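Posting for a labmate who doesn't have an account.
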Amino acid sequence: MRIGLLTEGGYPYVSGDARLWCDRLVRGLGQHEFDLYALSRSRRQEDEGWLPLPPHVSRVRTAPLWTAEEDGVTYGRRARRRFVESYGELAAVLCAAPGIGGPAGPGPDGENGADGENGADGSGAGAGQLADRFSSALYGLAELARDEGGLVGALRSDSAVRTLERACRAPGALGTAREARVPDLLAVAAHLERALRPLSLDWYGDDGLGATDLCHATAGGPAALPGLLARHFSDVPLLVTEYGVQLRSHYLASGPDAATPAMRALLAAFHGRLAAEVYGRAAIITPGNAHARRWQERCGADRSRIRTVHPGMEAARFAEVGEAPDRADPDTLVWVGRTEPSKDLVSLLHAFAEVRKEEPKARLRVVGAPAGPEGRAYLGHCKALAAQLFPDEAEGVHAVGDNPVAFEEIGGPEAPTLADAYASGSVVVLSSVVEGFPVGLVEAMLCARPTVSTDVGAVVEVIGGTGLVVPPRNPRALAEACVALLRDPERRERLGAAARARALELFTVEQNVAAFHGIYLEIVSHCPVRRVVLDEAGEPLPFAAPAEAHVPGRWTGPTARVVSRGGPGWALGASLGPTPVRATPLAATEGAL
């Protein structure tokens, strides 16, 4: 079958998010044909280039999400009226609803979204009507962009800001929305323009996503918008995979210091409504863990269409360490990851001070690189704290002191590879206060190492009963769990063996690829794209699309043309080729591979 893989800031770029997972998925499904549709996040990302692509990737189309030049499109009177109607409807929904497809969606702490109100009439039925209005407005804007050649100029116009202001001042609008001032309106309008840039792309015709059998969005938010439009215009089924919930990421990034209350309310409403629309239209949703699944269900996803697919790790790179667990230093604790405040290394250092009181020979290795400027500053703070908590110790008056805490990076003499870092200790520790899917824990499990972790994110789901779990921000509990394992080598060996067996069963590349292969077949069997093959005269050819048409290759004659049943009218003309769509400033760059 032909898969349209949709990414945002990810594959095939060298520095993209989830690039390894996408690359493994594409390479593992060589029996299918892939078309890549990638939204880039920055010029730097584009300049760094792509990963090497396998031969069954037949097309790559890219568009910059980080910038958009004026499209030069001049709307006539009718088009301007259509824009004001659709954009006004979109703004009205954002001002009238808490932001989720249900009566009251989750905020950043899992409570009700926005100000906790229900729909416009305070009922679930009202919320459902608002969801329908959001859908109508979104697809109305998409159809306008298709018909007129773009939306960029209209979304940046004074008319858009005035329309948003009218919605905020309308009777019945949220109290926080009514408080929006001109700078807030300008910022919200700019954010909406950026988020809606995929609507102006020319990806949705017979020569683009309309020709695929399935769209697979590798994230929610902007990455899923092209899939929504392919479904709307050509009835192509949509699969959405989220290893990190986009709505949750938005909530975490838009704290009180990042925006005013009015901006936060309006943007939370937009992202919440978009998440509900994506979940509602997707044929199947595949969260990476139960934590993400709970967020999706609270945002309106149908449980019957959710399939949890855990990320897959390459087990071979850890096989040597996992099959020889006795290499570990029995007195050493290891922490591996990116140094940043959310990892709470401060609590880990205080916990290790308690460990040293019980086990004076214990040592701690902190292995990892800082995550950006904030991470570098945090790493410096942690090193200073370690020097204060653990003054250099020496066995005698003539010996050189040695701090029991070592800060290292992968590639150094003590840890040349990631597997060597895990092999250096008998217990692996995770002290995070915020965590999605704990990749580091899975790597430690593949190395047959017992773990002590904080109860955050998907930690409990990942380790099962193969490690110890303590509350976050509790150094004493963390220390007690570490001491318990340091003092019991038989328990360490037993937990490590169970951890490796669990990881090999649930978290390998092979199980991940096999799961998506089955899901692809399930979707195509239940939601096939109905296509009509036209002859030279534009008449339908009966029985012209046999079952083997799903096999990569050209099975129709050179004069036949395939269009999606129920597709847009401009794709069903009598001409031999599809009606061209005028190029937009965001027109995709296409490379035939």
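Reply:
Got it, the structure tokens are right above this. The mean pLDDT is 85.
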